[in-house]
Amino acid sequence: MKDLFEKIQELQYIPNYSKHEQIVNGIINAIDEKRISQGEMLPSVNVMIKEVGFARETIVKAYSELKNRGIIESKNRLGYFVSNGDTSQTLKVALLMFAFDTFQEIFYRNFREGLGENIHLDVYFHHNNIDVFETILTHINGKYGMYVISPIPHPKTKALLQTIPLNKFLMFDRYEPIEGDFCHITQEFEASSYKAFVEVADAIKQFDEMMFFYKPASIIPIEILRAYKKFLKDYNIKGFTSNEYKSGSLEKGKVYFTLSNLDLWAMLKDCKAKNFTLGKDIGILSHNDELVKEIVFDGITTYSVDFGEMGRKAAHYVLTREKIQETMPTVLIRRNSL
């Protein structure tokens, strides 16, 4: 490690370089010049104190900055190691999403673009499985400078999320309460769903009944089911729920409401096969808007937040750390299907 200490000492003579910056840039210069390489162990904090003579707080601060930038990592009880030879990046970000559904892809594309080229981004998926969620959080904790997470509604979620420093945490998509003052960019499901149903109540009443495809213990928020049941009762509408759409079961006189794109495409296929007129013979309401729903069958009526804007806002927070605690508006977009 003699070469590393020499690189740090060289920076002591540069005006306006703090001790913390001397360590950070000394290590970066040593990596760039191949004096230390990826996977190599760095001196411990105690060794650094002895060799460079700086305070423990200064060295810990420097190592923390390098960790946040994804250049080094700490391994429990083993020490600090060079984890990345790309020293140009300024931050390492972990993005934990439900799954790579279309609307999640819209969020990702705008988030990735908003971060810019110098931010390292790793993407993980938990698929609404709490065991997977816990495994991922355990694996990534302490390795990133920012954690952008879409949580799971589960009793274990709160404790798992509170292992992450709140100043490095952004909750997105779904809101789950945890202790402390934390940033979030999320959507609301119950009141917004009820409002959307009410806005299309005139069209729904033109049909005989309404069907909502909802599978218990699925990714679909239970708040939407509560809003659906309340709407049926308040507006005296005949309605039912079903676990899934079965191909070929489309019937005239019904309004179908689904959050699943697979169900939606199957319904549209059956609509074409049975020569039904969408918006007249049957009605369809879909959750989460996307470009294809604007185009197919002259348009599918949806209600949704703007996931592109959510992604842009999340990227802005990561870059600026400007406090944000926002519930994004849900908007109904009426089209040909209802």
List keywords for this structure.
alpha/beta; Arc Repressor Mutant, subunit A; 3 domains; single chain; Rossmann fold; 338 residues
State the gist of this model.
Pfam families: GntR (PF00392). With 338 residues, this protein is an alpha/beta fold.
Overview of the structural elements:
The protein is of the alpha/beta class and 338 residues long. The chain is 39% helix and 20% strand. The chain contains 13 helices and 14 strands. It has helices at 2-10, 19-32, 45-52, 56-68, 102-115, 130-140, 157-161, 190-199, 201-204, 222-234, 261-273, 291-295, 307-320; strands at 72-75, 79-82, 91-97, 119-125, 146-149, 169-174, 183-187, 209-213, 239-242, 254-258, 283-287, 301-304, 325-327, 331-333. The strands form three sheets. The protein has a six-stranded parallel sheet with strand order 4-3-5-6-7-13. It has a six-stranded mixed sheet with strand order 9-8-10-11-12-14, sandwiched between helices. Strands 1-2 form a two-stranded antiparallel sheet. Strand 10, helix 11 and strand 11 (283-287) form a beta-alpha-beta unit. The longest helix has 14 residues, at 19-32. The mean pLDDT is 91.
Helix/strand layout:
Elements lengths: L1 H9 L8 H14 L12 H8 L3 H13 L3 E4 L3 E4 L8 E7 L4 H14 L3 E7 L4 H11 L5 E4 L7 H5 L7 E6 L8 E5 L2 H10 L1 H4 L4 E5 L8 H13 L4 E4 L11 E5 L2 H13 L9 E5 L3 H5 L5 E4 L2 H14 L4 E3 L3 E3 L5
Parallel strand pairs: 3-4, 3-5, 5-6, 6-7, 7-13, 8-9, 8-10, 10-11, 11-12
Antiparallel strand pairs: 1-2, 12-14
